[in-house]
Design brief:
6 strands, alpha/beta, 25% helix, 181 residues
Amino acid sequence: MSRPLLFLDVDGPLNPYAAKPERRPDGYTTLRVPRPAGTPDGLSVRRRPLRVWLNPEHGPALLGLGYELCWATTWMADANRWIAPVLGLPELPYVDFGDALFQERSDGVHWKTAALVDFADSRSFAWVDDEQSGPDEEYVTSHHRGRGLLHHVDPRVGLRDDDFRTLADFARSPDTSRATG
């Protein structure tokens, strides 16, 4: 039996970007990522690096959950360059969203959802993100033959102990039942 996939979003679950901007959360370190040329930076002419808060304890905790980890983030391959080393993660596979990147759908399903279902190919998976909603759960239920857990993480606080417990419980649960939530 193969391990379930754990699709990891960066901004929100791992980088609590919506936390109070003047105070880094306890246990987190600040990473400054240079913005590529041509990246819009609001009204500023200066191109400030992107501030990312990461908790190095998340890497070992994620590795201990019993999943095959996979990036499911707009960072795509760059997550291996910038995020994985800070967390102590090995190079991970990533979902290449291609033309679906940021493309809004008329049915309210998040632009990542169909690509994740296709990538999983009926294999059980959990997806941690801060942007899933009811239409995504409905899509996974109707289009994915394996189990799926859509686990919402508050982008003001990032992954917490309760989130890790929920993910561990799902990884240990039998493959015969379906789950969303």
